[in-house]
Amino acid sequence: GRKDLLINFGGEKINPEEIESVLSDCLGRADLAVSSIPDEEWGELLVAVFETELPSDEIEMLKSTLATTLAPHKIPKRFITGTAIPRSVLGKVNRAELRRCLVED
Prior knowledge:
The chain is of the alpha+beta class.
């Protein structure tokens, strides 16, 4: 596994690709990424970023679905929509750049 990819939330190691897969299955599309922002209490907070604008009712539906699918510590704490996701030339999420953008906002 790629340890550099893992997010530490309260001592729990989370693979963002696992969360992205569940979100993609729920939405039927893959224009999304999961990253984190620093948090004093928990270490890092999960953030789900979507390139498409999502209405608030769809985000609430996602939260409900994730609550039945994932462990509580794996559910993103923030949902950001309508934001470009930085990608490499191969189309993979540039995780370092995405995290930098989230921290700066």
